[in-house]
Design goal:
- The chain has 442 residues and is an alpha/beta fold.
- It has 14 helices and 17 strands.
- The strands form two sheets. Strands 7, 8, 9, 10, 11, 12, 13, 14, 15, 16 and 17 form an eleven-stranded mixed β-sheet that branches.
- The chain starts with a strand and ends in a 10-residue tail after the last strand.
- Bound molecules: NADPH dihydro-nicotinamide-adenine-dinucleotide phosphate and L-homoserine.
- NADPH dihydro-nicotinamide-adenine-dinucleotide phosphate (NDP) is lined by residues 11-16, 44-47, 50, 78-80, 84, 102-103, 129, 133, 186-187, 189-190, 304-305, 309.
């Protein structure tokens, strides 16, 4: 058995509390498996009075002093945000301490600079919990998939949005009720607009796509639409057409070589009910990766919540203790010097199938005018759905298309919304087809 590894945990909220529990309840098992023990020397919080029931913990508000403790070898950042958390991570790295973090916001905003700082100080940053909660996706990207050129990555990577959409779809809950429950369960970010606006998923996609494609990705490279503008009527129409709506993070490379342009996007998407992603419910996440040798692989598990996320944090602690994290950090190309910036596909050139919901006057010739405009832009229709109604004023009409270009759809909708017989704005969602390889049985 080696000497206990001194750790300081910044934050004792949802995830910090889970880390404390695992270290206490599973310390013996971890010791048997790895030969490692951890000495929780400091737990830094903002307000001591909130933690009065944990008098047995080494609680403090003095983060600087805790980090500077010479016996602390690893600083675990579980505070969230980019301000104070960033300052403290910097301090830890400058002091040569390894950092474990679940903070995708911080890495998306300052990853390049913090990774360089870690390299200069001959230490490392481990960040398994930053993407996919408890799913070991970062380690899989760095190790398990290293023999593969990655061409596609499609994921449900925000537990809060997936929880909200699941409750709205399967239980008929309203948006506000579902969001409140996600907050109560501890899935949501301190500022839940990070979740519902799609930003949290975009920050995770910037990390995952950097790892997948060996490029440097900025959050601003990613086209982002959240679930906050989605309406219940779209969930119902999608179901009627055989789809469910999921917030997907999608990274794909055009062409079959390392140089192909990347398309990176986060948006609500119609997923066919037979696609495995359609079955991913509640706070579960799933990341489907297409590797050149492996083909499709699906990483599935709880993407948020106390114990799943703490599981990934403690895995990182063990990885640091065993020297694996440092070796992986030394080789990883994300945020590394000389790694090229991602070459992005012009978003207008994106090819997708689309779901369009118009609010149209129920009058002769309206649909003919709409379909003529779509045809003039080279957009071919796949289905049209309109229900009988006694309301002769405005009715919802749903159109799905075959593959079309984003730019063509945008221009066509601008024209349609100017017709005067359609109430703008027309709702536009993208449809994704299931990977052909899944479900073939071969
Ligand atoms: P919480 O809000 O539950 O906990 C944050 C903790 O940090 C609290 O203990 C708080 O102290 C402390 N803290 C915040 N600001 C300061 C400060 N300025 N000085 C000292 N202490 C501070 O957050 P979570 O545990 O949910 O999330 C932590 C991180 O993990 C975030 O980066 C999040 O994105 C990430 N994450 C969260 C997941 C989840 O399911 N919750 C899943 C995956 C990643 P106090 O208690 O005194 O207020
Ligand atoms: N708020 C995030 C989510 C936490 O809901 O997925 C996990 O990163």
């Amino acid at each position: 058995m080696s000497d206990p590894i001194g750790i300081c945990v910044l934050g004792h909220g949802v995830v910090g509390g889970g880390v404390r529990r695992i270290l206490r309840e599973q310390g013996g098992m971890i010791l048997e498996r790895t030969g490692l023990t951890f000495d929780l020397r400091h737990v830094v919080v903002r307000d001591l009075s909130k933690h009065a029931q944990h008098a047995d913990l080494p609680l403090t508000t003095d983060a600087e002093k805790a980090i500077a403790d010479p016996a602390v070898k690893v600083v675990v950042e579980l505070m969230g945000g980019t301000g104070r958390a960033g300052e403290l991570v910097e301090k830890a790295l400058r002091a040569g301490k390894a950092v474990v973090t679940a903070n995708k916001s911080l890495l998306a905003a300052r990853g390049r600079e913090l990774f360089a700082l870690a390299r200069r100080n001959k230490t490392c940053i481990a960040f398994e919990a930053s993407c996919g909660g408890g799913i070991p996706i970062i380690q899989s990207m760095m190790q398990g998939l290293v023999a593969n050129r990655i061409d596609d990555l499609v994921g449900i990577v925000n537990g809060t949005c997936n929880f909200i959409l699941t409750k709205m779809t399967k239980n008929g809950w309203g948006y506000d009720q579902a969001l409140a429950e996600a907050q109560r369960a501890g899935f949501a970010e301190a500022d839940p607009t990070m979740d519902v606006s799609g930003r949290d998923a975009a920050q995770k996609l910037s990390l995952l796509s950097g790892l997948a494609f060996d490029v440097s990705v900025r959050e601003s490279d990613i086209h982002v639409e959240g679930i906050d503008t989605l309406q219940e009527i779209d969930i119902r129409f999608a179901r009627e057409l055989g789809y469910v709506i999921k917030l997907l993070a999608i990274a794909s490379r055009s062409g079959q070589n390392q140089q192909g342009n990347l398309s990176l996007r986060v948006h609500p998407t119609l997923v066919h009910k037979n696609d495995v992603l359609a079955e991913v419910s509640g706070s579960f996440n799933a990341i489907s990766v297409y590797g050149s040798a492996l083909g499709h692989a699906l990483f599935y598990g709880r993407g948020a919540g106390q114990m799943p996320t703490a599981s990934a944090v403690v895995a990182d602690l063990v990885s640091v203790g065993m020297g694996i994290a440092q070796r992986l950090f030394d080789q990883v190309r994300i945020f590394a010097e000389g790694v090229p910036a991602a070459r992005m596909l012009d978003f207008e050139q994106l090819q997708s199938r689309y779901y369009l919901r118009l609010t149209a006057r129920d009058e002769p010739g309206v649909i003919a005018r709409v379909t003529r405009i779509l045809g003039e832009h080279g957009i071919s229709l796949s289905a049209i759905l309109q229900h009988e109604t006694n309301d002769t004023n405005l009715v919802p009409v749903v159109i799905t298309t075959h593959l079309a270009r984003e730019g063509a759809v945008r221009s066509a909708l601008e024209e349609i919304d100017r017709l005067g017989v359609v109430q703008p704005p027309t709702m536009r969602l993208r449809i994704i087809d299931p990977p052909k390889e899944f479900g073939t049985g071969n």
